[in-house]
Amino acid sequence: MDRRMTIGDTKLAARVPPGPRGNVVLGSISDIYRDRLRFVLDVASTYGDVAQYRVAHMRMYQVNSPEGVGRLLHDNHRNYSKDVATFGTLKLFLGNGLFTSDGEFWRRQRRLAQPAFHRRRVAAFGGLMTEATLAMLERWQLRMDQGRQLEVASEFMRLTMEVVTRALFSTSVEGDINKIGSAITTLLDDVTFRFTFPFYPPLKVPTPRNRRFLAARETLDGIVYRIIAERRQWPDEHDDLLAMLMEARDEETGEGMSDKQLRDEVVTLFLAGHETTANALTWASYLLSAHVAIERRLRAEVDEVLQGRIPTASDLPKLPYTRMVIDETLRLYPPAWITNRRAIEADTVCGYHIPAGATVSISPYVTHRDPTLWENPEGFDPERFSPERSVGRTHYAYFPFGGGPRQCIGKGFALMEATLVLALLTQHYELHLVPGRKVETEALATLRPRYGMWMTTHPR
User: Fold this and answer.
1) Exposure pattern of 173-206 as b/e (b: 16+ CB <10 Å)?
2) How, if at all, do strands 58-63 and 359-362 pair?
3) Hey, is 416 helix, strand or coil?
4) Helix (H) or strand (E) holding 241
5) 447-449 and 441-443 beta bridge pairing
6) Which of 306, 298, 300 is closest to 382 using CA atoms?
7) Taking all residues of the chain, what is their mean pLDDT, rounded to a whole number?
8) DSSP character string of 33-74
9) At residue 449, does pLDDT exceed 70?
């Protein structure tokens, strides 16, 4: 069936996207729950640029091509809101921060927060990142002496939690850092659970899970609001992300953020600066352990550039191969592996009709594995991100941080942290996957290793 749409004086025939029929009642639910990643990959390879399928009563439109992704994230981004069920789940935790908000409110918040993430300001956190990493490596030394295996996914989670907490709050959370980490872990696990089981009772029903969630959120909010109140009394004593957010003023009104807005942005930054970077470091460790020649080249660059000293933000341009390893890891295992939007008005994407109100999904995991865009897409090849091989690459063939006006505001922070941590880790250790340990992706709110990532550490 065609939908006739007029753009200017040109009439276009917008086709209805093809897709799997699925079960008469449940649609494709059983296929999705069996293997989410395999399902979206199969949909893309079978049906092309745009496809549709049904999840019970809801119809999903999956956009796979770079052209379509660019349409949603950039060219017609104002037509696609975050008013979808997945973001509703995240709002239980994040509130109305940059990641979940929309429209004029989001644009105002983005303007206010942007100066805090200027390159020079982000670079000032390099020392904090390396200091926390060195402390982690000292803990590893003790475990290595005891001959113990190491579950590095949780180690990297602990590291990135410490970094983002201190970047946000400076030294004012010494006694609260463990409480914050525990609360964030509980809240993230619950959000992940609700992605998997969307029909679980709402928070007002006093199930044990809901009570744990509310208690964790109350703990986190109590700490965050207390620190905000202290800063309101003594505003000039800190130089951290919270201070920068509190200093921000709207150019038009001169107003700053309310306590609630500050809380929502702080908690959003916990998520953006914690879970995603930890997952990227975990998958990089796994990939390097399986590709000895690449690990050797990485080691050679780190040794030649750093000569045994601690890396700084100024070293980042001198570590191009280290960054290529990070980029290639994010291609194969983008932490935010899928995102949804709602079409406000009807649109045409890659020649296909998207009706008003439709839920539309894009997945970097899918597009990053398109064999028409990437040679040997399942292979681990950091050099594909060299300047020579990157020339002419289709825009939005690669988008681990999203794109357009809503590209992740913490991209620079995350890439600097991942590069510095990987360089320090390479200086001190080789990580080997424990034989017999199963490695499998778990596609929930983020792309995690289902059984953790068990490694043995070997000193350089």
Assistant:
1) beebeeebbebbbbbbbbbbbbbeeeeeeebeee
2) parallel
3) helix
4) helix 241-247
5) antiparallel
6) 298
7) 91
8) HH-HHHHHHHHHHHH-SEEEEEETTEEEEEE-SHHHHHIIII
9) yes
Tokens matching residue 149: 């295996």
Question: What burial class does residue 311 get, using C-beta atoms within 10 Å of its C-beta: 0-12 exposed, 13-18 middle, 19+ buried?
Answer: buried
Spatial distance between the Cα atoms of 336 and 402, rounded to a whole number of angstroms: 9
Output the six-digit token pair for 365. 């995991």
pTM: 0.91
The tens digit of pLDDT for each residue in 95-138 reads 999 988 988 999 999 988 988 898 888 999 999 999 999 999 99
Enumerate residues 6+ apart whose C-beta is below 8 A from 8. Answer: none
Distance in angstroms (rounded) separating the CA atoms of residues 369 and 383: 16
Q: 429-433 and 359-362 as β-strands: parallel, antiparallel, unpaired?
A: unpaired
- Name the phi and psi angles at 453, rounded to 5: -135, 100
CA-CA distances (angstroms) from residue 339 to 33, 82, 300, 332? 17, 9, 37, 16
- One-letter amino acid identity for 444? L
Please check whether residue 419 is in contact with residue 323, taking contact to mean a CB–CB distance below 8 angstroms: yes
Question: What CA dihedral angle connects 270, 271, 272 and 278, to 10 degrees?
Answer: 100
**DSSP state string for 272-331:** HTTHHHHHHHHHHHHHHHH-HHHHHHHHHHHHHHHTTSPP-GGGGGG-HHHHHHHHHHHH
pLDDT band at 274 (very low <50, low <70, confident <90, very high): confident
Query: What is the amino acid identity at position 324?
Result: M
**Whole-angstrom Cα distance, residue 384 to residue 400?**
15
Q: Residue type for 390, please?
A: S
Report whether pLDDT(280) > 50.
Answer: yes
Q: Average pLDDT, stretch 333-352?
A: 96
CATH topology of domain 2-459: Cytochrome p450 (1.10.630)
Domain ranges of the chain: 2-459
